[in-house]
Each structure stands twice: as structure tokens, then as C-alpha cells.
Write a structure and sequence with these properties.
- By secondary structure, the protein is of the alpha+beta class.
- It has 3 helices and 4 strands, in the order βαββααβ.
- Strands 2-3-1-4 form a 4-stranded antiparallel beta sheet.
- The chain is globular and about 40 Å long.
- The two termini are 14 Å apart.
- The model has no long low-confidence stretch (mean pLDDT 92).
Length: 107
């Protein structure tokens, strides 16, 4: 016990219909990823485009793999003033109704 355990957050979502993929990727690299990686609670943040799914149904377009100090610290970050630009601009690209976020601890 007593060992520091980080939390892994996996966030899945679809892009809005008609979103230009190149514009989304540019925004992700220029705004979203640097902002997230600057946050104290965030230890690492990577974004992946889903290129295929085992059953071929394609439920999500994007997966974010985020290592954070804790789930609560990450939730606080998402509502912080330092995160405001991402919070305001993300809905331009992502379908808010499709978001699924899970938080996990490594076994």
C-alpha cells in the first residue's frame, strides 16, 4: 500500500457530421493536446483516430488515452479557467452526446 497510483482515463467520442478531419487533427495538435499536457493533473494525453473496429460497426471516431493524478483532479481540470478554450472549441468538432469516459487503475 502507500504507493502512488495514477488513473488512466479513456474517452471515446464521435465527430460531428461534416467535420473536416484535417481541421480536427490540426486543432487537436495545436490546441487540445498542448493544453491538456500543460495541466497539472495530466501526466500524459494522447489522441487516436479509430481506423477500424473488430466487428466493423465503428461506434467511435476518436479515443483519448489520458493518464491523470486522479479522476477528481481531472474533473476539476475540465472546468478550470485554463481549460476554457478547449471546452469552448471542442463542441465544434466532437459530438457531445456520444462521449463515453471511463477511468481505470492498472492491475
Amino acid at each position: 500500500m502507500g504507493e502512488f497510483m495514477t488513473t488512466r482515463v479513456f474517452t471515446f467520442y464521435r465527430l460531428n457530421e461534416g467535420v473536416n478531419l484535417d481541421e480536427f487533427m490540426e486543432w487537436s495538435r495545436r490546441v487540445d493536446q498542448p493544453t491538456c499536457n500543460r495541466m497539472d493533473a495530466c501526466l500524459s494525453f494522447e489522441v487516436f483516430l479509430v481506423r477500424g473496429e473488430a466487428r466493423g460497426q465503428g461506434f467511435y471516431d476518436v479515443v483519448e488515452d489520458i493518464e491523470v493524478e486522479s479522476w477528481q483532479a481531472w474533473q476539476d481540470t475540465l472546468t478550470s479557467p485554463a481549460f476554457a478554450q478547449v471546452s469552448q472549441e471542442w463542441p465544434t468538432y466532437g459530438d457531445e452526446s456520444s462521449i463515453l469516459s471511463i477511468h481505470c487503475e492498472k492491475i
